[in-house]
Structures are given as structure tokens and as C-alpha cells.
Amino acid sequence: MRRSWTPPPSPAPSTTRACATVEGVTGPTRSRLEDEFLAFVARYNLPTPEMNQVIAGFEVDAVWRDHGLVVELDGREYHEHRFEEDRDRDATLLSAGLPVVRITPKRIRHEPDREAARLKTTLAARAPAQ
Length: 130
Prior knowledge:
This protein is of the alpha+beta class. The chain has one domain: 3-Layer(aba) Sandwich (Endonuclease, Chain A). Strands 1-2-3-4 form a four-stranded mixed β-sheet. A hairpin with a 2-residue loop joins strand 1 and strand 2. The longest helix has 14 residues.
């Protein structure tokens, strides 16, 4: 049974990057991997997530508030030495009713069909009641 989750407001500080290639993006992007992820989302007709929003006290890479799902993009340059911190963040977000899907550049670049199918299934399972 899915827990009920009420999304908090999403004011996030502005950053130096903004995605001009994907319509409907909420929030700036901060890396090439985030840009690649948004292109991947558009290519596979996934709902457009909000980017770099503060959720449960943490800034997350991508969130679908209405589905209660977070995606963290794990490139080596930012996450290689943050294993414990990342797992702690995941546990806190999960306790707030928000599972975290971690996606690596390899999975977007070399297994995009598989990754898109997984995200579609997860988003469909967490879709808001109509």
C-alpha cells in the first residue's frame, strides 16, 4: 500500500545553468548528466520532472511530486566519495514516503530502453489517483 504524501513547496535557489532544450522544465540544471537526463525523459515521453528542488530538507536532482518519486543522477564526479551520505539521504527520503531511483550515465547512454521501461513502470505504479 502506498503512503500518502503531500508535496512541500519547491523554491530552490537559482543556479548558473538553465535547460533551454526541454519545454516545461521546472528548475535549472547543473550538469551535462542532468541535461542528458532531460533529453532522455523527452525522447521516451516520460513526464517532465522538476529539477534541483529541495525535498525533505535535501536538494534532489529530479522529482515527480505528483508521483512521489525522486531520481538521483549518479555521475562519478559528484558521487564517487559520497556513498554513505547518499544512502543516508535515500533512507530519509524513503521515510518521508519518497523512494529514490539512482541512475548512472552508463544506464542512460547504453541501456536507455531498459531504463525508460523501468521509470515508466515505476511512475505508472505511483501515479496519482484520478
